[in-house]
Amino acid sequence: MWNGKMSHVQHPIKFTSVIVDEAAQASEPDVVLSFMSAGYRVVVVGDHKQLGPVIPERNLCTSYVSALETPFLERMLQKPQRHSANTLLNVQYRMHPSIRRFPSIQFYDSKLRDSVSMPHRPELCCLWPQRDEHVLFVDCQTPQTFGAGDKSPDGVENKVSLKNVGEAKLVLEACTQLLEAGCSPKDIAIITPYTAQQQEIRTRLAKRPDSRNILVGTVHALQGSEREYIIISFVRSFVQDEYDIHSADSSGMILSTDKQSKALRDICSCKLGILSNNRLLNVSLTRARYGLVCIGNRSVLSNGSRDFFDYTQGLAERGCVVDRLNAKGTAKRRGG
């Protein structure tokens, strides 16, 4: 106990084994320093395919920040000689098989296996276009706009954010369908990467008293947790009167524009929001247990991410990409 005097400094305690949990979310120095207490064995547990360390200090040099953001597990697994000491926990107990399918193929070399016990739930055939598919992508072509962002402690706005009113309306419609089918608000969560979109969705949900316990937040807010139903609003789209999107073929996957539209070329060349890091996409798509609804502009987002292109292309082949939800929630399918 501190009594105002310098206490005797003891040597660090040594343990036979040290186990570091959630090691992929800690910076490498934090992980390695814990090894000093191990006398014989170190066990590092984590998933480097999901969210990595968050480094808030942005006054460091770019290369140093990049090194700190690279999980220890990822760097170790880049060395072939380390693979023999690696064990993949390949049985998942959370997701409906149709939700697990893409993450397993894209991020885990098709090694995930299902051991999911699904208690009785409403079939919700009005939402899912295919009986055995509990994934739906709504191709929303509404424009993005600027909205209020984060505010400083004194209440002054200091950051501009993005929102997509058309997507927010579809989010509310999907929530309405779930609630009217008997789902509990506590079983629903909405993921969106922009503060303005979160505010837009919360404002619309507030008009429904039974939606009070629906969670609206970022990917980071849902890391490590799960909900029965997840709705994702990707937000990013074209800007009204500035961008013009044309489908070059029946797939709707080609984005073309006037050569003078520098803004559109920029939006296609950069990584977009939640797609800027494939770990963010992986976490987003694996929070749902029973049903996943994605809402976004397929053409724009597919141009910003190869992973997203593969995801929506696979969903289209499975009949899970739709134009809209009508008033009864029946999805109108769109061809692949």
Automatic annotation (TrEMBL):
InterPro entries: DNA2/NAM7-like, DNA2/NAM7-like_C, DNA2/NAM7_AAA_11, P-loop_NTPase, SF1_C_Upf1. Signal peptide: none annotated. Gene3D superfamilies: P-loop containing nucleotide triphosphate hydrolases. Residues 72-298 form the DNA2/NAM7 helicase-like C-terminal domain. Residues 6-55 form the DNA2/NAM7 helicase helicase domain. GO terms for molecular function: helicase activity. Pfam families: AAA_11 (PF13086), AAA_12 (PF13087). It comes from the Eukaryota. Transmembrane segments: none annotated. This is DNA2/NAM7 helicase-like C-terminal domain-containing protein. It comes from Effrenium voratum.
